[in-house]
Amino acid sequence: MRRIKLVEVRSELGAGTRGASMGIDALKVACLNKGSDYFRRFNSVQVPDLNHVLFDRNHFPHARHIDSIYTVQKAIAGTVEQTLRLGEFPLVLAGDHSSAAATIAGIKAAYPHKTLGVVWVDAHADIHSPYTTPSGNVHGMPLAISLGDDNRACQRNQPEPETEFFWQRLQDLGEPGPKLTPEHLVYVVVRDTEAEENAIIERLGIKNYQLAEVKEKGTRQVAREIYERLRFCDLVYISFDVDSLDSRFSKGTGTPVEEGLNVEQAISLCRALLENDRVVCFEMVEINPTLDSENTMAQNAFDILEAATDAIQNRLRMEEVVSR
């Protein structure tokens, strides 16, 4: 049977609030408290982080620490690519969400001739560029990297040439050019966006299943519709930001937002999405235990992670039975 490989990414260079680098360790604490053997069952690999540069002066106001982020992302992309080439399923546990651009680049490097679909479960659209960002935080930019769309029509910043250099390198990571087309991207419960993001989402026609629609249809029907939208994709990557949960359940994340999923909905959605045999990678990001005195976020996230992993393993077992 194909094995799951945990890819641990402790970088928080793309975040605006400190502490996401400790998210993986918070998950491990939640695992221990639950009496689970989860982290003993799977091989893991740690991608080196450069979080020490957070103590240095930032030279890139419109894409903070983008030079170091590029170095980290090269390592993430290489690890994801190698994991897939070895026939394993990369389950990425990461600090801030900028890592997702590298995960996507790694998938495309492993499967350069296949069409990739992305399901983005998140409170935020993460589709800013250095030209539109209000904060300079790169965790708000991974989809602009993957789509290769700078949204110049809504430009508000003039990034320095050095920023533009590294931005282009990020967009060309793995293979030159876009890794993803807008019709192969689906948002779930995105609800905290800026005007520039609203403009590009409307221009590109990206579907967003907001909470009311998820409640009305149920998670299984939403998953069915998502896969109908992605029917021409050979592969699917699912990116789960814990701030997709309602802020009642997600205090331990840098940017909690009201009107999100509850834990049961998140578990049900992840199960339904991960039963599809085209899913080649799952990623969970943005747990920040420094904002959460009782580690509740990580406990909730660990329950979701266990359910997601069970769904992946069940599917891999089915694939093995069929292949015999």
TrEMBL record:
Q: List the GO cellular component terms.
A: cytosol
Primary enzyme class: hydrolase
Residues recorded as binding Mn(2+) 1, renumbered to this chain, are 97, 122, 241, 243
Protein name, as recorded: Arginase
Name its species. Hymenobacter rubripertinctus
InterPro entries, from UniProt? Arginase, Ureohydrolase, Ureohydrolase_dom_sf
DNA repair in keyword set? no
tRNA processing keyword on record: no
